Amino acid sequence: MNRTTLSLIAGATALAAVTGFASLNAPAASGDNTAKAATQQPVERTSLLCPQPSTSEIANTSYTSYTPVTQGAADSGKAELQAAAVESADSTSGKKTGKKTVKPALKPAEPGKPATGDGSGAEPPALVGTAEGKFAPGWTVQETTAVAAGTGRGLLGTNCAAPDTEFWFPGVSTATGRTDYVHLTNPDDSAAVVDVEMYGKDGTLKSTVGDGITVQPHASEPILLSTLASGQQTDLTVHVTVRSGRVGAAVQALDDKIGGDWLAASTDPAGSLVMPGIPKDATAVRLVAFAPGDQDADLKVRLASPSGLITPAGNETLHVKAGMTAAADLGDVTRGEAGSLVLTSTGTSAPVVAALQVVRGKGSKQEMAFIPATSPVGARATVADNSSKGTTLAVSAPGQSAQVKVTASAGSEGGTAATKTYTIKGGTTQDVDAPVPAGLKGTYALTVEPVSGGPVYASRTLASAQEGVPGFTIQTLPDDRGTVAVPEADQDLSVLLKK
User: How buried is 415 (Cβ within 10 angstroms: 0-12 exposed, 13-18 middle, 19+ buried)?
Assistant: First the structure.
């Protein structure tokens, strides 16, 4: 092995620690694989994108940033959230003069303490965030907006997401009374080219308007979905694919009667899916699923309740035709208890994506939120912007029983961190009595870490009633990607250098 080869290996290992996407196997001279099992190392750089919040004049938006304390993280670093506005024009010549100097939306605090910022004002922008060094592992930013009245009124919340190249959004609508936008945000220095496709109950909605959408560098584009295809449909699935570059994507769903919220992307298509944390007082739950492959999917529908897995009467199964969107009204499926919806294939393991639209309240006092299918908590999951009242943490173990540790951070304005450990029985969902920082002032973050047992899924509900409307928003808790697997070579490379 020559020095060039060794340099390439060192470079690939460093890349893994930074991005979380690289892997490396170094073969021995004999042909045997000498790479040890990968070890988890803290990531060194994280990017997050926050969509443009409501532009309503009576909307109030806040941001909360939090980095959990991670063993082995760097001693220094930086993090910032900047407006996704890239070019400014000279007031006299009209020529572009380069990037705007924009005040950051907030200044993140040291790991272990949340920081808050205000995003209210006239037409608040989307945000592009970058964290490096000690701020990167598990960096989480929550965007929360309260809208007092009008279309989409209520509480809207989303976890700012990492850029990617593909997203699935089952649960969008172009029906009368709904105004849905897909927000595309480009964090990079070059333009991104994006395709947006929609699928209904009869398959693909024919349109060329969604092909080749250009998103300028460091900019955000809200696309009104009703402009991409003619006709009105209640249940649709949006597929966002990136031809070049990468983007962040989220759907803002606004309803004239039942409020609004953000719909985050479903986890990757799979034969089994979990949508955790349906509020126990949900008055209406609607399941929307899509089969992206060339095979139909037959799904068993079950609810992981506090006492175990049960099958909703009248909705035991769901048949999803290939390339088509299917939906089912589950009513008040939780019947006053915490619950998570579990979908499993009953025949071929045809992959699907899915999401729930959840409604609380009745009549003119209704409010909606979404729960997309999500991946397990993994090594650790983090969610910010919690308060002493109005926060509900739901944890589900759809398979084996599991033990989890939940930590409440210090408060953004004061308070001492607290930790509790819980056992979640297999096949159940529990609304756990999550810890609250002692002497809490401001908001705090929650981290969930599996200790033993099978995989767990979790979500956090924020609730804030306004004039009798039960405003709420739900964020799922997948792995916060605070660490990345980096293989260790167990071979003495000095021996190879002598050859």
Answer: buried
pLDDT of 75 above 80 = yes
Are 203 and 257 in contact by the 8 Å Cβ rule? The answer is: no
Q: Which of 15-24, 123-132, 425-434, 460-469 has the lowest mean pLDDT?
A: 15-24
The H or E element that residue 14 is part of is helix 3-19
Contacts of 154 (CB under 8 A, 6+ apart): 146, 147, 259, 260, 261, 367, 368, 466, 469, 471, 472
* DSSP letters spanning 370-392: EEE-----TT-EEEEEE-SSSEE
210 vs 67: CA distance, rounded Å: 36
Query: Please, what sign has the CA dihedral across residues 89, 91, 95, 100?
Result: negative
pTM to 2 decimal places: 0.88
How crowded is the C-beta side of 5, counted as CA atoms within 13 Å?
10
Do 132 and 139 form a contact (C-beta atoms < 8 A)?
Answer: no
**Which residue, chain included where needed, has tokens 């890349």?**
15
Residue 110: CA atoms inside 13 Å, Cβ hemisphere, count? 4
Distance CA 430, CA 406 (A): 13
